[in-house]
Amino acid sequence: MPKEFRLPSLGENVTEATIGKILVKVGDTVHKGVSVLEIETDKAVAEIPAAFDGRILEIHVKEGQKVKPGILVFTMEEATTSVPASVSVESTPVPSPEKATVSPTIGKPAPLRQPTIPIQSVPRPKSNFPILAPPSVRRLARELGVSLEEIPVSDPSGKISAEDVLAYHKSKLEGVSNIAAETSTLVKTAESITEERLTSSSDSWGSVQIEPMSTIRKKTAEQMARSWSAPHVTHFDKANITQLEQLREAWSKKIQTAGGRLSVLIFTLKIVAEALKRFPKFNSSIDLEKEQIVFKKYYHIGVAVDTNYGLLVPVIRDVDKKSIKEISIELPQLAEKARQRKLALEEMQGATFTVSNLGGLGGTGFTPIVNAPQVAILGMSRSSIEPAYQNGNFVPQLILPLSLSYDHRIIDGAEAARFARWICNTLENPWNMFLE
Fold this sequence. Notes:
With 436 residues, the chain is of the alpha+beta class.
C-alpha cells in the first residue's frame, strides 16, 4: 500500500534545507535506517535515512531544490514482510565473478567471496539499488571524475569508502610514477573545479570575477542579518592572565598526555559557564510576542571555528558539569570535525552563549555579533605583554583583551560590566571559582 515519506524535522531553528543528492531512484527497495537523501542545511551536510522498509514509487523533489521539513519527498510501497538483517555466508552459494549478482535492496548485498580473488579486484556488479557512500566520499569521487558505479568495494556491507575511491583512481591514472605526480594531478583537478564556479565579468571601472555564494556563506549571511536586528552594545575589558598562563604551562603536558590541548580558551569556557550561573540573564532568550524572558537552566556554549568553508560554531554541552580536562579533549575534536565539515546538525544547535576566540590570528579587540536567539557573546583577542603598576613599580604582565557584545533589549550596561568584570577577576585568580 502506498505510503508517504516526508522530510523529518531537522533540529532547532532549522526551517529550510537544500537537496544535495538523491541517493535512490524509482523502483529501488530500501531498508529503514539506510540513507536515501543528502541535504545541506545551516552549516552541515547530512544524510536522511529511510523511516521504514519499502520500494520507491515516486520521487517528488529534485537536487538543488529548497525544501522545508514536512515536505513530501517520496511515495513508497511499504514492505509487508521484513527482510533478513544479514545473510549467512555458509548457507549462500558463492557465485563466480562472471555470474555474481547482488540483491536489489539497499544495504543488504549478497557477500562476494572468492578464495583466489581479493574482493578489491571484483568489479561492482550492475544492479538497481543505490550506491552506499557518505557525502564526503561522493564529493571526493566527483572531484576526481570517478564513477561510483565502477568502483570495487572492499567493505562486505557494500559501502564505498574514501580508500576505495582513491585506490580505484590510482589504478586508472596513466603515466603516474610517483606520489608527487599524483598529488599534482589532484591539485590541478581541484583548481579546475574551483575555476568552473568563477565567472569573468566587468563593471564600470574594470574587470571583476564573480563567484556564487556557498550554502554556508548564504546561511551565515541570513543568520547575521537576523541577529543584527537586535540592538547591540559591546563592552570592553582586560584580564591579567599572567598567573593563569603559569598554571596552563604547568598542566599542559599532563593534559596533552591525556589527549587534550590546554589553552586559555579552555579555562575561559569553564569560567563563562560559572558566570552564566551567577548572571542568569546572560543565559536567556527573549520572546517579544509573548513579552517573556526565557531563562535556560542548561549551559551549552558555542565556540566559533574558522574553516575553509566559513565560520562554524560547534557546541560543547553542559560545560558546567565537565572538567577542564574533559573540555580540553572535546573542543579540539569538535574543531577538527568542523574543519573537515563532518559536524552533525545537533552538534551545532542548542547553544545558550557563544565564545569567539581570535587570539591566534591577532588584533587588539573586535565587536562580535550576538548569535540570535542568544543574548550575548564573548570575544577574545590576542594576549600581549603590557606594563602593570604593582607596589610602586611597573612589571611586565600578560594581558588578555575581552569584548562582550550583548542584546540591549534584555541586558543593561551595568549588568554587562559586572558580568565581564567577574570573568576577568576569575581569569586573574582562577582558583576563586572553586572557593566561592
